[in-house]
Design a protein that fits this description.
The complex is a heterodimer of chains A (366) and B (321). With 366 residues, chain A is α+β, with helices and mostly antiparallel strands. Helices cover 32% and strands 20% of the residues of chain A. Chain A has an eight-stranded mixed beta sheet with strand order 3-2-6-7-8-9-1-10. Chain A is globular and about 65 Å long. Helices cover 30% and strands 13% of the residues of chain B. Chain B contains eleven helices and eight strands. Chain B has a five-stranded mixed beta sheet. A three-stranded antiparallel beta sheet of chain B has the order 5-6-7. The N and C termini of chain B lie far apart (57 Å). The chains are: A alpha+beta (366), B alpha/beta (321).
Chain lengths: 366, 321
């Protein structure tokens, strides 16, 4: 699936760590590591187990969109700090250098495509000249290369193919790595990806290695479960709007939901945040941190009124946003990459696929 | 399974009198059932109750206060129901409790680790119970695991496998696996020096994503939307992504559950990052047992020690140390 203008390379598992260490001289390399029962991204370190394919429990979104970041820090100046005459000194945070995400899944790379328009001044921001660009996200985005590791097989919770992805999709990736006997086939998908291969251990791939990778991609594709017929899922846009007032439907769908944030925080496409000023004495910082529409506080208004007081309304928003409201303003693209983490890691086994299909069915009956 | 069929029949018979019945049905992957909210008799055919019925349905009961509902409970779930009753968070007359003998539930994480050489848990096509084993259908054929190797730790020390105070008990009551919970896990953990234990928690909490699944899966965590963790006024916990505040929340959670936690382990099971937060609650449960001779959710005449006040506690020597 890689672009033909780039030449694929092969790296042996023995040389893999050395190559990544060389890359780590110029960029922070984030790679999956098994810790306890979870697989998390950590900065490249010893004993990371890079040679085996690991499916990260979390998405890689925190690399571009940290769980919490200081937008700026502030300090009151002058002897009588806090007095009316006092000035406030603001300081921008130091930006990070370049980063490389190694071992993201193809769905994770595609997940960032849901982030991009939101933080690049899209949608309503165009009314004011597209000025609402987010420099924090965009700087990291421009500075980060993504090395996708193709999935060998799909899990029961995977549904990337419902939403236009696949186990070896290169959309959003700079480099596609495929596990072969003894090493990885590295197929560049962008100039930045090709540049990562300038290392003596990245040797030109043999035609049979390229063919073997293609066969593995096809096998992984076959391991995916059945998808709804092409185009059927698009009906979710109208269906979810039609069911907006149907509280009985949403109460039924949300009965087992705990209204925790596991789904949204593990999701590669959930991009919502909260802003809090935190200070201690005369100094502090304006923090931007992840927020979740599954939390009651998300919509709590200053008056005390909460338009989404019940979990049914919150789940409706999560599903509606991903499969109706977002696609309505982003050329039909779902804000879902089908990674299935929200299903796999849901403590209560809520299955967003079932909810979307039930909504389409329910709306068709009305 | 015979018990499952009996339970399906019992549920069908009870349903006309009830708003709904909470039990378990098929989950999104083989190793776990999902909570099931039965509203009509046809749903009963997919009802499950067995080794994979891990979720604690007591969690949902306070939401239904004032409506008559049925609930299927394992022994540990029944203790949560008992504690909710004791605290007035649910009313006995609103509940129709259906018990059955529980022979323990799976710890899907243990199973995933044991089968890692073959496949991931999400690649399993199906799984079924067969006596003391489970038979799993993987991508390369069927194989089996002994239940005792994949059973949750809480089941090994469970003293109450048969739901107490059930309106209907289906099946034969069985003897517990253990006779005494000696808190061996805690004792082993406490062998390590304090610095090492702190380092352990710092490492574990570094994975926390603050999703609060631990809190929201806890049947006794009843502040719900008013949780101190998300309070903005006062702003107790920082929004900064630091280990200190994450651990701070766990300490608050454990403290609020002292003498109330029944050890159902849902906090730890719910954690997507696999942080062993039950251990903190067990440390306080042991202390409450020692100080007040009290175990949560068992004695319907008892008073949770931290929800009441005695001028002089018989086991706490305040005046003559």
């Amino acid at each position: 699936m890689s672009d033909r203008s780039f030449t694929p390379a092969f790296i042996s598992f023995k040389a893999l760590s050395g190559w990544l260490r060389a890359l780590a001289q110029k960029a922070t390399v984030h790679a999956p590591r098994r810790e306890g029962r979870a697989v998390v991204y950590r900065e490249l370190g010893d004993g990371q187990g890079l040679e085996s394919f690991l499916r990260p429990t979390e998405s890689a979104k925190h690399v571009l969109f940290p769980r919490s970041e200081a937008l700026f820090s502030f300090q009151r100046q002058g002897e009588a700090a806090g007095a009316a005459s006092g000035k406030i000194r603001l300081q921008e945070p130091e930006g990070e250098g370049p980063a490389i995400i190694f071992g993201a899944l193809s769905c994770d790379a595609r997940g960032f495509l849901s982030f991009d328009p939101v933080y690049d001044g899209c949608g309503t921001a165009q009314a004011v000249g597209g000025i609402a660009k987010d420099p924090y996200y965009l700087r990291r985005r421009a500075n980060t290369s993504i090395i996708v590791r193709a999935c060998k097989s799909a899990l029961n919770t995977c549904f990337c193919h419902w939403v236009g992805g696949g186990p070896a999709s290169t959309e959003g990736a700079d480099l596609l790595a495929t596990d072969l006997e003894g090493g990885l086939l590295l197929s560049p998908c962008s100039e930045a990806g090709a540049a990562l291969l300038e290392h003596p251990d990245c040797v030109p791939a043999l035609p049979e290695q390229i063919a073997a990778a293609a066969a593995l991609h096809a096998a992984a594709e076959r391991s995916l479960g059945e998808a709804p017929p092409a185009g059927e899922l698009a009906a979710s846009r109208a269906a979810l709007l039609a069911l907006f007032e149907n509280s009985e439907f949403w109460q039924r769908q949300s009965a087992q939901c705990l209204s925790c944030g596991a789904c949204t925080y593990l999701c590669p496409t959930c991009y919502c945040f909260n802003i809090t000023d935190e200070s201690n004495g005369i100094a502090g910082a304006r923090l931007r941190s992840w927020d979740s529409c599954m939390s009651a506080l998300f919509t709590l208004e200053a008056s005390g009124h909460n338009p989404r007081a019940a979990k049914a309304a919150r789940l409706k928003n999560r599903v509606g946003h991903k499969f109706s409201y977002y696609p309505a303003i982003h050329e039909g693209r779902f804000s879902c990459c089908g990674c299935g983490r929200c299903i796999k890691s849901c403590p209560s086994s809520v299955d967003i696929r079932k909810i979307v299909l039930a909504a389409i069915k329910e709306a068709a009956h009305v | 399974m015979a018990i499952e069929q009996e339970l399906q029949a019992a549920v069908k018979a009870a349903l006309p009198e009830l708003d709904c019945i909470i039990g378990w049905g098929p989950g999104p992957d083989a190793l776990r059932d999902a909570p099931l909210f039965l509203r009509d008799a046809a749903d009963a055919d997919v009802l499950r109750a067995g080794f994979f019925s891990v979720n604690n349905p007591a969690l949902f009961l306070p939401e239904y206060k004032g409506r008559k509902i049925g609930v299927l409970v394992k022994g540990c779930d029944a203790r949560s129901v008992g504690q909710l009753l004791l605290e007035g968070l649910v009313r006995r007359e609103d509940l129709f409790v259906i018990g059955f003998p529980c022979s323990g539930v799976i710890d899907a994480g243990k199973a995933a680790a044991l089968i890692a050489d073959r496949c991931e848990a999400g690649e399993l096509r199906s799984v079924r119970e067969q006596g003391d084993s489970i038979v799993l259908e993987g991508p390369d054929g069927a194989f089996s695991l002994a239940k005792k190797d994949v059973r949750a730790d809480k089941c090994e020390r469970c003293l109450f496998p048969n739901a107490m105070d059930a309106d209907l008990f289906v099946g034969e009551k069985r003897a517990p696996f253990a006779e005494l919970d000696e808190y061996a896990d805690l004792a082993a953990f406490e062998q390590a020096p304090l610095e090492e234990r702190m380092a352990f928690w710092e490492k574990e909490m570094s994975r926390c994503i603050r999703c609060y699944a631990c809190r929201d899966a806890c049947p006794l965590c009843v502040c719900r939307d008013q949780c101190v963790a998300v309070a903005r006024d006062p702003h107790w916990l920082s929004q900064a992504d630091g280990i200190r505040d994450k651990l701070f929340f766990q300490i608050i959670h454990a403290s609020h559950l002292a003498g109330r936690c029944t050890g159902c382990g849902e906090c730890e099971r719910a954690c997507p990052m696999g942080i062993p937060v039950l251990l903190l609650k067990r440390a306080l449960s042991r202390r409450v047992e020692t100080l007040f001779a009290y175990r949560a959710g068992i004695d319907m005449q008892g008073r949770p020690p931290l929800l009441t006040f005695s001028l002089e506690e018989p086991r706490i020597k305040e005046r003559d140390w």
